[in-house]
Each structure stands twice: as structure tokens, then as C-alpha cells.
Amino acid sequence: MAPKQKTEGLTVEQGVFVVPDVSIKELLDAIPAHCFKRSALRSSTYIAWDFIVIGCIYKAACYVDTFIDPSVIELPHPYAYRLARFALWSLYGFWTGLFATGLWVIGHECGHQSFSESKFINNTVGWILHSGLGVPYHAWRITHGQHHAATAHLTNDQVFVPKSRSQIGLPPLDPSQEDILGSHVSEKVMNELWDALGDSPIGAVLMSASYLLGGWPSYILRNASGQIRYPEGTNHFNSNAVMFKSHQYWQIVWSNAGVVLWLAVIASMASRFGVWQVLTVYVVPYLWVNHWLVLITFLQHTDPVLPHYRAPQFTFPRGALATLDRNVLGDLGSIMGWIGAHATHGISETHVLHHVSSKIPHYNAWEASDALKKFLRSRGIVLEGAPGGWSEVVRVFKECKFVEDEGDVVFYKNSYGLAQMRPIFSDGAANDSGIELDK
């Protein structure tokens, strides 16, 4: 967005988003047929590989740790040994958490039934993997399926749902002071919105960090970033929660049993090996997994260039195409970008494809994604976001504050009430706000 200062406020030149007019059949037909094939054996090899890599990381850390000793190496101060050990095991936590995120992704694929042709195998493997990472497998599987069915739907999507102007307590839109599409805002309104929503650089970083660390448990436990229409106290452990149907009751109970067993194992290991050892070897990598999960999914579904829809304009294809592919760790260079994609099985790099067809296993998703992108480019649709990293989270967090209460195709506005994009339809019809827009 290129701002242009005027005496009466601020005006920006917006990008134009052509609301997709494409059928799910067209999207699926663009994908080679063999990409839909699932193999339990092949999928299992990736579980084995992730555990092998994690085991090697642990063994390497233990080996290097033996050298951090006064009898082996002389450091300038006794506390330097503690600092060196802290750095070593911090690196262990980072890398283990990254590859453990790959295990999380495979459990997620089980929930989509893309691990194998067998529903029993999918749910058994998914329950084991996700329970081992503190995830209520069936509960999350159910709500995540609802998310896929209604991605970017303002009243039916399950997570990363934008709050509207009225929901965050802002004054009603004044058409004489600001454009509903977010292209112009008066100085008076800009100041009011900034006072209510503005972030200092440090504040934005701290809020983003707290979001990355606590976002996942907050969503599971209290519906943070979820549907605001759900009752207060909605969570994924209540078998009678509004998100679940009566016949799913025992699936939620079974999910809860997996999490209880997970907690019991952690407590047992802490009793046997010590709390500090369990924190170092398991809990820190576990927190990294939660961090990557939130970072990846937040950036897939949140950006000022992405639309959100109300019911009159929502379709499944439009929802599927209201997400972005991003290269995890790509902001640190091509090598780190390759490692990030490899460790997390391309869940971020092929995410648009995943929303078009969630039953395609990750090892086929690369080819399928390339074919889908070729088709989308022929229709003028490019859904590539900036690489996924901390700086991108902060940028998006600052740019995506609220959406308007009116309009069936809406974009995030920032702390000044300005939006980067405006919608038009492929036939040049007026947009849903009743304002005629040029093609």
C-alpha cells in the first residue's frame, strides 16, 4: 500500500482482488489422478524418518554435552559452562520441535484420512501421534474438518476468525469520515482508531510472541481466535460442546483419555528422571511444536490480501482459495527454507492444495500443488505469501486488526482503518457493499 497524505486524512492505492469464480470440479480436475493415492506403508516411513532424525538430534546433543566439562575444555568462567549447556540444549529444543512438528502434521493427515485407505489405521495412528503431543485427536479432527468446510466464512469457520468493528467495540463506521472499503480515512478517525488499536513496535513483538506460545492451548481450552458466536467457556474437552454432535460424544471421551494418558506419562517420567530432564528433553520441544503450529496456521489464513466471506458470497472453492502458501523458515535463506519444508512435510508450502483436497498425502502434495498452481495462474490467481517467519507474524499482526460489519466480501483493516485490497467480481458487477468498482 502506498499512502498519500492529504489535508483531510490519508488515502491509499489498493490492490484489486477478483473474487474467484471457479468450481471445485475444475480445481480437482487440474490435479493428476495418481496424486490422490494413499499408502499406509509409505506414510509410515515418514513417521520412522521423523523419529530417526529426532533421535539423532538427541544423541548429538548428549555427545556434545560430554565436552562441556572443565576436564575437557577450559572456559573463562565457571558460569560459561552453564551458558554453553543452555545454548546446546536450546538448539536441541529448536530442532527437535521443528521435526516433531512433522509428526504433528502426519497426525493431522490421519485426521483427514490421507494417511492410508483404512479409516481404522488413520484414526489409530492419528490418536497415538496427537495424544503424544497433547492434542485431543478426535475433538480437533472434527472441528478442523469444519474449518476446511467453511474456510474464511465469517460465521461458520472455526479458527482465525476476524473480529468485526462492533465486536471489538469500535465506533460505527461514518461514511463521511471513512470509506467502507478502507481506501480513505479522515485524520480524526485515524487518530481514534490508532488510540484504540495501535501497537508500539515492542508491544507488537510481545503480543505476537505471546500468541505464538499460548495460541494453541488457548484455542483448545477456551476457543481463543475461534467463533465468537460460541458460548463462553467453549472448549475441545467438553463432549457436549456446541461444535460436536451427539453421536460424537464417545470420540471426545476417547480423545480426552489420550490427553490424560499423555499427562500421566509426563508425570511418570518427571518422577523417574527428574523435572528438569523432562523439561529439557520433552517440554521445550513440545512448546516449539505449539509455536510452529500457530505460526504456520496463522500465516496461512491471516493476511491483509486475503478475503473473508459472509454467507451470500461464500462457496467452498472461494474458501479454499482464501489461504496462502508460504515457505517456513524461507526468510532465513534457501537452505533453511528447504529444511523447514522438509521437516514439516510441506504443510505450509502446499496449503492451498490441501484446502482444495485434504485427502492428498503430503508426499504427493508437491506435484499436485504444482499442477494446481499452473491452473490457477491461467485464471489469474496467485496465492503465494511471503516466507513464514517471526517478522512476518509481526507484520501481519499489525496489519490485520478488524473487518467491517457490512459487506459480503471483506478484507482486514489496520490500526488506521485502511485496507490493502478491495474486491470486484470477474463479471465487473458491483461489489457487495453496493459500490461500483472498475474492472
From TrEMBL:
This protein's UniProt keywords: Membrane, Transmembrane, Transmembrane helix
The keyword Flavoprotein appears for this protein = no
Which part of the chain is the Fatty acid desaturase domain? 89-161, 215-380
Q: Which GO terms describe its molecular function?
A: oxidoreductase activity
Q: Which domain of life is it from?
A: Eukaryota
Please tell me whether the keyword Manganese is annotated for this protein: no
User: Where, by residue number, does the polypeptide cross the bilayer?
Assistant: 46-66, 86-106, 253-273, 279-299
Which InterPro entries does this entry report, sorted A to Z? Answer: FA_desaturase_dom, Fatty_acid_desaturase
**Pfam families attached to this UniProt entry:** FA_desaturase
GO BP terms: namely:
lipid metabolic process
Q: Which PANTHER family match?
A: OMEGA-6 FATTY ACID DESATURASE, CHLOROPLASTIC
Q: What is this protein called?
A: Fatty acid desaturase domain-containing protein
Name the source organism.
Agaricus bisporus var. burnettii (strain JB137-S8 / ATCC MYA-4627 / FGSC 10392)
**Lineage, please?**
Eukaryota, Fungi, Dikarya, Basidiomycota, Agaricomycotina
